[in-house]
User: Fold these one by one.
Assistant:
Number 1:
Amino acid sequence: MKSDRSVTMTERVFDLGAKLIAVLVAIFLVTPILVIFPLSFTSDSLMIFPLPGVSMRWYVDFFTNPVWLTALRNSLMLAVVTMVVATVLGTLAALGLVRLSRGWRSVVSTLLLSPLIVPVIIIGVGTFFYFARLGLAGSFFGLVLAHTVLALPLVVIAVTATLEGFDPNLVRAAYASGASPFPAFWHVTRPLIMPGIATGATFAFITSFDEIVCVIFLGGPEFRTLPRQIWSGAKETVTPTIAVAAVLLVVASVVMTLVVEALRKRAQRLSKGAAT
């Protein structure tokens, strides 16, 4: 009995210690991000603590400044186009991947997921020299292709995870009923894997919206996204407007993360319902 009690006490202490470490790490990672929120409401032209006063002047400056609004519009446009392209290609790749044999699946999945392993700076330099020969450097289409390379593995992972619990007999039943491949996919497969598709699309949007390295290499001097404008502002004139832009990036990422979590829970409910 004493031995069992000592083991239980040890497990409780270990569990409490692990939770404490997790909380401390979370505080360490989140605190620098949270600092920008009060700084965006400062009434001074300098980002200092304690705040001399509270004001919305820098939010007004952001939403009335054509430079920042253009950067926000470019970021949204680039992220939406990248999301659409990466989601379509990633979904098709995942559908083909699950049909391969185990050996070929390992090879192909390694190639598809390699952008997650290669540093972004290497991808930026490589795409710049390659796209320069094709005349795509400095073009919007070149940026879409580069961001699609970064976002595609996330879509493949999300859709493949959903397909792992998919019952292929449902598609066979659709074929037996006379459905051709595309209607069978659209009316049978697509609704069941939609949570994975939506999750991959959300990750693709976040990846493009927050990316800066490829934008610096391929965007050209005139094309500025929100992260690039923040980078330029931090080098040239540091004002609390930069904090406002950073707040918008953080809020957008948090909202998208919450959407992904909601989709994940919905996918779990659907898989449980299909199992029963």
Number 2:
Amino acid sequence: MWRAGWLVCVVVLAMTLAVPTVPNASAAPDGQSVARYGQPPVWGDCQQWITDTSKIPTAQCATVAVPVDWNDAADPQAADAHLAVIRVPATGDRIGVLMVNPGGPGASAVKTVAGMGAALADTEIGRHFDLVGFDPRGVGFSTPELRCRTDAEFDAYRREPMVDYSPAGVARIEQLYAQFAQMCVDRMGLEFLANIGTASAARDMDVVRAALGENQINYLGFSYGTQLGAAYAEQFGDRVRAMVLDGAIDPALDPIAARVRQMAGFQRAFEEYATDCASSPGCPLGTDPAQFVARYRQLVDPLVQQPAYTSDPRGLSYADAITGTVNALYSQRYWKYLTSGLLGLQRGTDAGDLLLLADDYQRRDESGHYTNQQDAFLAIRCVDAPYPTETASWVAVDAQVRQVAPFIAYGGFTGLAPRDLCALWPVPPTSSPRPASSPGPGKVVVVSTTGDPATPYQAGVNLARQMQASLITFDGSQHTVVFNGDACVDTAVVNFLVDLTVPPDGLRC
């Protein structure tokens, strides 16, 4: 009914780690020799990663080494990973660095900062901060790249409907999950998979800080980036000057509860989309709110048996129709493409816009090549929290999701359900859910959107309370908002980052 690999992952925090005293905060973290970890990068141009750097001519790129297994950090023979780092220097009176993580997990911060560097060049942020992005281990341009599937294998995976909850169908779905997990083991090895999570990434982030020669960092995290930011603040709170967390994940929730709440958020977003669609003539979901879900299911359910026509020879599979729909619900800007794709299904013409939405979510380009974002997403998600391994828990989840998110539900409740991919994962979790801790008063601002489908509003309220942070409430129905054009939000964020001016209590934009 819903597939492993969708959406923003459930949150956890990194393990609490004792941090030995170091001579100064710019030295390597955890007392490791600066000769190996935390040494200054050798900066060069960014064209090996960013094709067009014309709008960020001062950008510099480098790699920073971290140990694959932090337990082996003192061993000179231990394996290293190499983190891709981009820096766009401040153009004016420099305050420090602003590290950015765009979320996922699995999204490339290098690509994100390349775009932000151009967009924010003439703003207070661009003038006062070096914009810095590092791709966490296994992600983006960092090496080794976490990649479990070839392009052809990923295409084949997307053709599987994964909706047959008969005994044989459940066995088939779990077999596909187990095959994917084994591909990851075969291509990445157990050691790398066991150390891919946020617990390691937070420590890696402090290596990057040390390599940059900064005593403290400023940080802007979106979506999963709020989880990474909270994990960093827990371990290295004294090294945080200012932190903005937008589209927050509640670190106290277990993955089951977080999944159900997220699906409820997407149901609300679907209803808002359908209501807007119904205001226009010819909406494929009709005009009766009581029938929106039924009309949608009538359009997509037949794809389980036969993909719909698209000009792309792959056609539109059932899984891609659902993924494309979910992708469109992240932002109203995508609603017109969802409507176009559903109209194609209704009329029996080209439903290609839904396929394009699915390709965008899965990060497949026009040549048929995928980034490794989804493989990294799954591997990180599976070690970032403990997942129940018994079938009964997943049957209960199936029943709950059908109740709170009927638009995503295929068929009726059968009393059977496959276990999640993470219940079959070959390495144990390295983190577990618990409330976040505060790095200190006035250091954190949380931004939460009332109609955010992927990271529901209450998660931001909870995170702000846990971190003793200021909360900015944005009235909207999109996923994240900072530096996305809202003057109220952006002014408050800029004032906080530049002047450490805490937003007024109860700020609502």
